[in-house]
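User:
I would dearly like some help making sense of a protein record. Take your time, and here it is.
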Amino acid sequence: MVSRVRVWLNRTYAENVFFMDQLRRNPSDRAVEIHATHGDPDSPVLAAADTAELEPEGLSPAAYVEFALDQCVRRGIDVFVPRLHQAAVVAHRADFQAAGTALLAPPPEAVAVFQDKVIAYEAVQAIGAPVPPWWRVRSADELVAAVEELETAGHKACFKPASGAGGVGFRVITRAPFSLVHLNGFPSPYVPLDLVLDAVRAAEEPVDWLVMPRLEQPEVSVDCLTGPDNRVRLAVGRTKNGRRRGFTLSDQWLEPARRIAEGFGLHYLSNIQFRMFGDRPVLMDVNTRPAGGLHQLSLCGVNAPWAAVRLALGDDPGEIAPPFLGQDYTVVSGPRPLRAVSLPQQRVEEPEPVRAPAPTPVDTVSGAAQALPL
């Protein structure tokens, strides 16, 4: 009898409820139990897990590693998918291995490169992958110089934190004065340059921003599965152009993604994002973790989370090619059950007596894929 696999996801995105669904619906028909921890008691990830626990707040990275090791031992974790404090966790891979837990994450050297976007761009450029022009900015004067150089070349300037995840802190510079235009409708990423300069000059500490040209669509996120031997097992691009989403296997996106994943040893699941700079794709960002939209590859007949767990357990799935590319689709929000009480309930080994179910609160999780007619 094949034993169950116990997988832990620590403080992760709500969309990873779909990651969990795919693990349970794995094509090997192997039993999977999922443990989840989070700081928000109403996270849908906690509700979707078999066992769940609230994470203590305010832990240093070193203290968090101790917390994580305790979780792995007490919960019998086979595979740990770390997002929070990933760098600190992977630095202690040997300790987790000694506890019987495989880490589904790259080695510390790879994580370190992509924590700082400037270091990442320099490293990626050194191996011949395409990157946009960029400036590291720490003062108002440096910001003005970068913006003027970009505008002289005919580009719109934008900035984002040199370290950070997702689109947090991303803004596009405009010369238009602040007016009701900025207050009508939905919030906009556009900010007037004079207001940004005032904020930078008034700040108690210097900023640390990456300034670059605003890149154009399509945006292509290449999901990669890479083995500990630095060989990519799976690479599929997910395209985004406005609301319309799709898939691609075009080499103009996959070739540089493979070069980055293999060149830096981005073991297991990574997500490498590109946009257009003029008429060529350039790197936008690299995530050393599974993307929130990874589950969308199921529209191509691929279960990437399960393939990654197999690989982490030493069961190499080999080269994976999607049997087909799904039709274009869009992403919509849908309800997801939450626990009826804030403290997560735990799965028990013996079934409880059947009772009439109480009304269950729901949360809305964005990420359900719906096909668009072609």
Q: What stands out?
A: The radius of gyration is 22 Å. The chain is about 25% helix and 30% strand. The longest strand covers residues 216-226. The first helix runs from residue 17 to 24.
